[in-house]
Amino acid sequence: MKTFYKIISILFQPILLPTYGMLLMMQIPLFANNFPFYWKAYAVGGTFLFTGLLPAIPVLIMYFKKQISNLFISNREERTLPYLFSFLAYLFWGLFLLRTMRLPLFIASVGFGSALSIIIITFINTKWKISAHLTSMGGFTGGVFGICYRFAINPVWLFVVVLFVSCLSAIARIGVKAHTPMQTLAGFVVGFLCTFIPVMILK
Predict the structure, then answer these.
(1) Residues 55, 87: Cα–Cα separation, whole Å
(2) Which end of the chain offers a freer environment for a tag, N or C, measured as fewer CB atoms within 10 Å?
(3) Which pLDDT value is given to residue 175?
(4) Domain count within the chain
């Protein structure tokens, strides 16, 4: 069972979830039917660059320099610097969505909201370990719910799947003894609110 939990932790880790989200958004009829493939590929590729590759590079460097104990950065004390790099990367992601891809502010706010959630958990993490996995999962969920509402679509099956994966991710993080139930719940709530609220209120 522990192997299964580790697989879930890898599949739904923070550096992959924004790319999953962008791939999902490209299935919305507005994007699927009205934008060329190269534009969609650029949006997905740019998202992976800013939220996957750039945050991973400092973690890998620190790991090989033995400045962190493992790639999941399990020790709370080792997380501050990687989180700050991630904050900058997500901030640039938001600008990429807004200025380069010319997406509406309420969509680009997913990037800015995610950056805000990283700053929040960075401060929390100085005193109490909070789940980055579930913060990212909460941000993903908040983005899905908010964007679907703004586009007036109601994919119930998607909502069920996203909530199921969120619960599964929390169970996995608890199962590998990386976090307590409260740490996963707190992470999810922070991530969800930081993306859902901006998507809902911005134009």
Answers:
(1) 9
(2) C
(3) 94
(4) 1
Give dist(CA 113, CA 195) in Å, integer.
Answer: 5
- Element spanning 59, H or E: helix 54-64
* 31 within 8 A of 25, measured Cβ to Cβ: yes
The chain-wide mean pLDDT, for the chain, equals: 95
End-to-end CA distance of the chain: 45
**pLDDT tens-digit map of 106-138:** 999 999 999 999 999 999 999 999 999 999 999
How would you label 63-102 residue by residue, b for 16+ Cβ within 10 Å and e otherwise? beeeebeeebbeeeebbeebbebbbebbbbbbebbbeebe
Residue 149 clears pLDDT 90, i.e. is over it? yes
Domain range for residue 164? 2-201
Please list, in sequence order, all residues whose beta carbon lies within 8 angstroms of the beta carbon of residue 100, skipping any fewer than 6 positions away.
46
How many beta carbons lie within 10 A of that of residue 202, not counting itself? 16
Q: Report d(CA 130, CA 122) in Å as an integer.
A: 9
Neighbour-count burial of 6, counting CB atoms closer than 10 A to its CB (0-12 exposed, 13-18 middle, 19+ buried): middle
pTM over 0.85: yes
Does the pLDDT at position 199 exceed 90?
yes
**Joined tokens for residue 44:** 């997905």
